[in-house]
Amino acid sequence: MPAMHARPRLPPRSHRSAAGLTLIELLMFIMVVGLALAAVLQVFALATKSSADPQVQRQALAIAESLLQEVQLQPFTFCDPDDANVATATNAAVGAGTLNCATQAESAMGPEAGETRSGVPQFDNVNDYHGFSMNGIADITGTAVTGLADYNVSVTVAPAGLGGVAAGDALRITVTVTGPGSTSVTLQGYRTRHAPNAA
What pTM, to 2 d.p., does this model score? Predict the structure, then answer.
């Protein structure tokens, strides 16, 4: 008689160990994870929407740095740079002698009559930039810079105390740039007086 193979016996149902998840448990898990992921993505979307565009912020910063450097590179002397005694004056008084300004002191904040940033006569001293503003960005020649029409600039220049520098011999320059999406960048820098015979 042929050999018969015995069928393995299964343990009773109560002794079997659980093997895996049921379909209902798997669907519930997917639904919970999906809801949690949707909530997290909404938080990220809201944060991204309310934050400033990094490119706009970087562009505003570059404009502010450029204009601040432009102002700081201007002379800050006792006399107007067109004055004959600009290199020798040791004070802002106007009068005879090489230690005074020959015709015009450079003590008033703001440009002299007719001076502009990009015209003739051109700004020739740090304090000429006080009150300067620009809607849309233009270079030093007055040529509009492509792509920067939505940015605005304002500059203030004011006397400031600066460590051991004598009163009146330091200016604080504040450049504020505003751009799209309520972006705003403010930079400050200082300029000290440069006069060959300053005490």
Answer: 0.70
